[in-house]
Design brief:
Number of strands: 57
CATH architecture of the largest domain: Sandwich
Radius of gyration: 37 Å
CATH class of the largest domain: Mainly Beta
Length: 824
């Protein structure tokens, strides 16, 4: 049981306007509605009865003197209630039996929307710079890097592939590029480099004019591997040997890279080296040309993350979304694949997140992924038919946070299979998922369809297919992102769209067919050479390998500073207008606050300088748009009955279950022809039938009107439950007020509901006419033995018992009046 700060009271009341008449006995007509046979589902242990239509007597030729509603509950025979571990479950829930009267009348709701949204939210006034001087602003983070310089004062050994003279070819090491090269154990043996030998330096022999004056940051990493061929970039398992600036302008014959730690030869393993160059300053000449050998393309890979059309990623930190153009999704029906690369924000996760969500015209979920939810579970929802198909599984931090991980979500409604693949491997599968997808009319990446649940982390290479890709296809193509590289995909004709987060901050960029309009302050980032891995290509050259080591050298450790730009993402500013019964944005721009200060800071927390943003300032004064919703049918909800489900632990209900019988004769005008009902909860079996007993009713009910209904809080009762005025219609002669109230949870004083002896009363025309004590003797309940605290007296809340209905006769108090007031 929860203990909230406020207690609640659930109230329903009806005003009935009958005539008096004589009653006679007659035959009985039975109407069966919900059946527990239709609900008993061992696979899920429950099936929500939901809102359903049923056919009732027309009442045109037959009069009924009484109508009884028999609500029967029983426990599961083949499963457990709500997977709680008990056939009857630990219920203690409110159960309503609702009837929905479709009046045939239509209404609209007055709606309002701001003329502008800033960061996808309302605001009053804002001043932005849309075109900053010098381009998009960025903070600068100063990092401290270590460098090494070795002197082999005790001699050294050189292991070189140039024993027969210069290499046969040359290659250029370009800036903003990542290279990976593989040497086999046999090749290392040929160099004379034996297991256990330590290398402290790598030399790249120059070829031609070595014209670069400096490399601002070079990162050399190594790892030992049993892999014999490269297929894409290797992204983990590295040991950093060099990371800092390298001056190459004064090198006579080679480019020497001194290691921060030794590279020790491991027996029987192949050597993989990774070199990333950042900030290459070129002088006159041919560039960073080094001697190389032509090798098989399986021994060399490279990435150019700054090249034209290279994939970027978007960083989302909450309240960010990329709006998908649903016109591109019209082909979705039975099969789908949604895939992307994710790097979750370890500082934020795990919390409740939504990676993407698409809904249909009825706002029902068709596509959705939580990765993760707050319980670290991953959820894949797809296809709606009274509910959505779902598969789910708990995940660890390693695939949710801090690392680039490829996720692919597939469904084939024809086979009923839903899959989740992680890094190209099947991670979770579900069967019997045959809901097809209806037309998706609204979809966001980076948050839910209406932006109330967000994603926190980085997203790259997002794409959608109208085909369920196989595991082999996902694994073979997950590292491909660019439009050109996908041209040879075996399912290219089924690609609905791909988003590679093109463009730069401050620019409105359409990400292909899916559009991906960015709302919020998500920033687009380029992969650095050290982290690039998408769209790797094979080369045909590998540098000559020259290593030097042996004895421990005399080492001087130096320090250098690396200035890392950290772009400040802009905020979206959208302008909106009314189109019929809806609003849509008509203009999208991006800007930065006019008072923004960018800063240069060190990684140890010192602020070195700040700079004011400069550029033309645009002022926005927000206003309000007024419009009307789509017309909707007026549907009045009436409560036929209410009871509290029993504490089911230790409770045994036989094969016939337990029945509650309610006299619903007063609702007779509503119980005819096609009737829409909603009954029960999700964790019990329900059988509901009606007995129409023929004869002349004691009263001919002409009209039923609902005054107060819903959940109300006791601490503001007088402000929300107001007097109701009723004007009798033609031919009305008698009136009755029916009230039903149940309270739950604790509280203090006038805010106490469940365990307080409060007095309830009704006033007519301002004068109190009835009052009663709501506390009930729960131990008198014939449904026993129950588990839990069912025997304690409670205020309108006895587990396993109906909620008491008060029938209050108004006729003597209001007869002959043109109108009258009632107040609870």
């Amino acid at each position: 049981m929860t203990l909230p700060k406020t207690a609640i009271l659930v109230l329903a009341s009806l005003l009935l306007t009958p005539f008096a008449s004589k009653a006679d006995p007659g035959d009985t007509t039975w109407v069966q509605t919900y059946t527990w046979e239709a609900q008993n589902n061992p696979a899920t242990a429950y099936d929500n009865p939901g809102r359903r239509w049923f056919q009732f007597p027309s009442q045109q030729d037959t009069a009924y003197r009484k109508v009884l509603m028999i609500h029967r509950l029983k426990c599961f025979e083949d499963g457990t209630a709500g997977n709680l571990g008990f056939p009857c479950g630990e219920w203690d829930y409110l159960t309503y039996n609702y009837l929905f009267d479709h009046t045939g009348l239509f209404d609209s709701t007055a709606l309002f929307h701001p003329t502008h949204l800033l960061n996808d939210a309302d605001f009053d006034q804002a001043s932005l710079v849309l075109e900053p001087e010098g381009g998009a602003p960025a903070d600068t983070l100063i990092r401290l890097l270590a460098t090494a310089s070795h002197e082999f004062d005790q001699g050294s050994t050189v292991w070189t592939s140039l024993v027969d003279g210069p290499a046969e070819a040359s290659m250029v090491l370009e800036g903003q590029t990542r290279h990976q090269w593989l040497w086999s154990a046999a090749e290392l043996n040929d160099l004379g480099w034996m297991p256990g030998d330590s290398a402290w330096r790598m030399s790249l022999p120059r070829a031609g004019n070595l014209a670069a004056s400096e490399v601002a940051r070079l990162t050399l990493r190594a790892r030992w591997t049993s892999v014999e061929a490269l297929n894409g970039m290797v992204t983990s398992g590295w040991t950093t040997l060099v990371d800092g600036p390298v001056s190459v302008g004064d090198m006579a014959g080679s480019w020497d890279l001194d290691f921060l730690q030794p590279l020790v030869r491991e027996p029987g393993m192949n050597l993989l080296l990774d070199v990333a160059l950042d900030g290459v300053t070129m002088g006159e000449g041919t560039g960073l040309d080094v001697q190389a050998f032509n090798v098989a393309d399986s021994l060399t890979q490279f990435c150019e993350p700054s090249s034209m059309g290279a994939a970027r990623y978007v960083r989302m930190d909450g309240n960010d979304r990329m709006e998908i153009d649903t016109e591109a999704l019209l082909g979705l029906d039975t099969t789908v694949t949604v895939e992307c690369w994710l790097r979750g924000d370890a500082a934020a996760l795990p919390i409740n997140t939504t990676l993407f969500e698409g809904v249909n015209a009825a706002n029902q979920r068709e596509l959705n992924v939580h990765v993760p939810w707050g319980n670290s579970g991953v959820y894949w929802d797809c296809g709606f038919d009274g509910g959505y198909d779902r598969i789910e599984q708990g995940a660890g931090e390693g695939i949710l946070e801090g690392n680039w991980v490829h996720w692919a979500f597939t469904k084939d409604a024809q086979t009923g299979v839903m899959n989740i693949y992680v890094n190209g491997q099947l991670w979770l599968s579900g069967n019997g998922k045959d809901n097809v997808m209806a037309e998706v009319v609204r979809m966001n990446l980076g948050g839910s369809a209406y932006g109330d649940v967000d994603y926190y982390g980085d997203v790259a290479a997002f794409r959608m297919w109208d085909e369920a890709l196989t595991a082999e296809t996902v694994a073979a193509w997950m590292h491909r992102a660019s439009e050109a590289s996908l041209a040879g995909h075996p399912e290219a004709e089924h690609l609905m769209g791909a988003m590679n987060m093109q463009g730069v901050d401050g620019e409105v960029t359409q990400q292909g067919a899916l559009a991906g309009w960015m709302h919020g302050d998500a920033g687009r980032r380029a992969f650095t050479p050290r982290e690039a891995f998408l769209d790797a290509a094979s080369g045909d050259g590998r540098p000559a390998l020259v290593l030097q080591g042996g004895a421990l050298p005399l080492t001087a450790i130096g320090e250098s500073f690396w200035a890392e730009a950290q772009p400040v993402p802009p905020m979206s500013i959208t302008e909106w207008d009314v189109f019929g019964n809806d609003v849509a944005w008509t203009d999208l721009q991006y800007g930065w606050p006019a008072d923004l200060l960018t800063a240069t800071v060190t990684e140890w927390g010192d602020t070195l300088s700040t700079h004011m943003l400069e550029g033309p300032v645009v002022d926005y004064n927000n206003e309000e748009l007024a419009y009307w919703s789509e017309p909707f049918e007026v549907i009045d909800r009436y409560e036929l009955s209410r009871y509290i489900t029993p504490y089911g632990i230790n409770l045994t209900l036989d094969s016939d279950g337990w029945a509650w019988v309610f006299d619903v004769t007063d609702y007779l005008p509503l119980l005819k022809d096609s009737v829409e009902l909603q009954c029960g909860n999700w964790q019990e079996l329900l059988d509901l039938k009606f007995a129409f007993i023929e004869g002349t009713a004691p009263r001919d009910v002409k009209n039923v009107t609902a005054f107060w209904k819903g959940i109300h809080y006791l601490n503001n009762w007088d402000a929300t439950i107001l007097p109701e005025t009723y004007t009798p219609g033609e031919g009305e002669a008698m009136w009755r007020l029916k009230t039903r109230a149940s309270g739950h949870d604790f509280g203090q004083g006038n805010n106490c509901a469940e365990f307080c002896y409060n007095t309830h009363s009704v006033k007519v025309n301002g004068v109190e006419q009835w009052s009663w004590e709501i506390m009930q003797e729960c131990a008198d309940n014939p449904l026993f033995p129950q588990g839990g605290t069912w025997i304690y007296d409670r205020a309108g809340w006895c587990p396993g018992a109906p909620v008491r209905t008060e029938d209050l006769e108004l006729t003597p108090l209001v007869a002959g009046q043109e109108s009258f007031d009632v107040e609870y």
